[in-house]
Amino acid sequence: MSKVLIIGCGGVGSVAAHKCAQNSGVFDEICIASRSIKKCDELKDKISGKTSAKISTAQVDANDINALVNLIEKFNPDVVMNLALPYQDLKIMEACLRTKKNYLDTANYEPENAAKFEYREQWAFDEKFKNAGITAVLGCGFDPGVSGIFTAYALKHHFDEIETLDILDCNAGDHGYPFATNFNPEINIREVTANGCYFENGQFIETEPMEIKRVYNFPEIGQKDMYLLYHEELESLAKNIPGIKRIRFFMTFGQSYLTHLKCLENVGMTSIKPIDFNGQKIVPLQFLKAVLPDPASLGSRTVGKTNIGCIIHGKKDGKPRDYYVYNVCDHQKCFREVGSQAISYTTGVPAMIGAAMLATGEWNLKGVRNVEEFNPDPFMDALNKFGLSWIETFSPEIVE
User: What is the DSSP letter of 393?
Assistant: First the structure.
């Protein structure tokens, strides 16, 4: 039996708390912590009658390392799940290092004042975590996360070598708003408006935002426009999958979303550079986040499905092989189960599974690790058990 501390009480944190409560055979004590104790208490009330696990709440500022250390020492968890903002990754990792507790997150570190993200500063903790005898699991959502697990599983069971990998993320959900984001607007818009990038023949090749477009016929959804983006798992997979020649990441967007986003970008509302407004400094993107619908409020009104998966080309026994493994998730089914839309669900469920892997010792490599470095088999089994069943085929449509 294990104790888990969940830092963050947004959409993903809510799903993770629900799923940890469902997995009370592993997690018998759950502490939900965030800056807003009210949100934590409301979430506790929703879950408490549905589980045998003991649930508590705490108020903590994830930017305050000393406060984090005090909370961790008081609750004494086996695993700390960082489901706060990517800006806070390094502080929470430092708090885990000081208290010698295992760490897990779903998105890599981003500096608050620069629109970039990379693993370098988190990977720099590796030796310290090894010396402390603890593990940090980076990027354990869906993408990054399950995308890496899918790739490791394919390499273990279906390929002798992987040559190319395309990660396809399709959200065909409709929330009815002219413009809204399905996860934190500040993080979402920074990601989408950044330059694209893909890995090929040992180097990263940069593109203009939305420069490369493809159309793909997604199972259970149909044809959708998708655009090449840079996503952090490209960096770790290029490092951890031996001999891989090309990795690309594609995400679907509807025309209404792209039109609104371009208008907002043209008038400066997506900028992260502070401006003077009525005698005070404001960041336009943070103001935009404040006026957009809260992603956690979208669950009841979002209909449709997501399809996220990996198309892999390589060789097995000297012969070429193509393989597609994916998950389809229904927004309304997720809402009925945990009160969330599928975007938060597909991130929160893998976070819980990764934490369970650490808590039970299924994953026991020390240091700072990405998910594809661990044994994928127990994780793949747990996906089927906890609501993210997967489908595989050896005759996929290939992305040209």
Answer: E
